[in-house]
Amino acid sequence: MANDTRAIKATCLCTAAAHEITLPASAFPFKAIFCHCSSDRHSTGSLCLGIAVLPPEYKAPGAWLEKLQSTEFSKRITHYFCPTCGTMMLARLGGGDGGARWDVCTGALEQIDGVVEVDCHEYIADTVDGGFSDFLQRVDGKQVGRWSGEPGQGEQLPLYWQSSSRPTIQPSPSDKLHAYCRCKGVEFWISRPSKRSAMGKAAWPDVLHPFDSPAPKPKDAVWWLRAGGTKYLAGCCSCDSCRLATGQEWIEWAFVPAVDITLDEAGQVPFSREFGMLKHYRSSEVATRHFCGGCGATVFWDGDERPQLLDIAVGLLDAPEGARAESWLEWRTARLSYREDALPRAKGVTEGVEEGLRGYGKRYQREPQDAAL
């Protein structure tokens, strides 16, 4: 019938900002775009911002917006996130009530399959190295568009594109990697791995050894150091908690010892869990999530069982060689962490990311991808 409607629920991790979006059934599926611009990476902590474009007639109700904190992304774009748990939920493009376009973050939606249709990546040129676009090449067998900048303008970039100006990095023990959110209410620096980075051991994460695996659990180890101790491990997580905390389909984590993090570039101010505009939300009985109270960017995942080690949101990193920070990080490509959470609601993009990770690993990774490394 012409007046048939369909509802889809969007929610944050704490559920305080949950809302049901009701639209004509003909408005579905929404077009999904993954933006790789530098500002969106630092606004979310993820390597890209995934949004579903809502129809022109949609206007976010005031009752929903009252539950969210707004942050001015640019003169024409406003982001909205939950001030309690940090979930990025909405974006408004355009000024005032008239002519504005509303986007909802895909990770906040209860369902993706049948609700959104992935269209393209945009602003890949900002990544220098291709960023996450190389991890998501196809969805349901369909190639995802790869725009250098604004979709429909400029050029589409090939798979595994890298900027011709991408520098070749010669790592030095004195290097510092700057990490910061978009508003710079949170910023810190990371040192290269050293002997002190290997102090202590920890239980293996799901990205290396699935928690539901019937195989014997490996003994605690220094698994976060890779490439002969010269890089930190990085991986992608799609668990429901990470998805809802960020508003993104996945979050990329780098596993870094607290001893290798300082609050100044000179390395004189040691790491603290209370600094700048950092806020925290206790997401489970064993973990705390940290985000910027100014712009909503995800910053850390902090597990009680390994206080010496932090999961750092890779989208915050400002590595000259590109968004993937490949001179600092070795990417785990054999597993998308907690894929079991993602498959029931987002089978297409989940399997697409798994395929892309394997392709990237085959092309670039030199070490074996065994869980028992």
TrEMBL record:
Under PANTHER family, the record lists: CENP-V_GFA DOMAIN-CONTAINING PROTEIN-RELATED, GFA DOMAIN-CONTAINING PROTEIN
Q: Where is the CENP-V/GFA domain positioned along the sequence?
A: 8-124, 211-329
What is the name attached to this protein's record?
A: CENP-V/GFA domain-containing protein
| Organism name | Friedmanniomyces simplex
Query: Which UniProt keyword terms apply here?
Result: Lyase, Metal-binding, Zinc
Q: Where is the signal peptide?
A: none
Pfam families xrefs: GFA
Q: Can you tell me which family this protein belongs to?
A: Belongs to the Gfa family.
Keyword Repressor in the entry? The reply is no
MF terms from GO for this chain are:
carbon-sulfur lyase activity; metal ion binding
Q: Which domain of life is it from?
A: Eukaryota
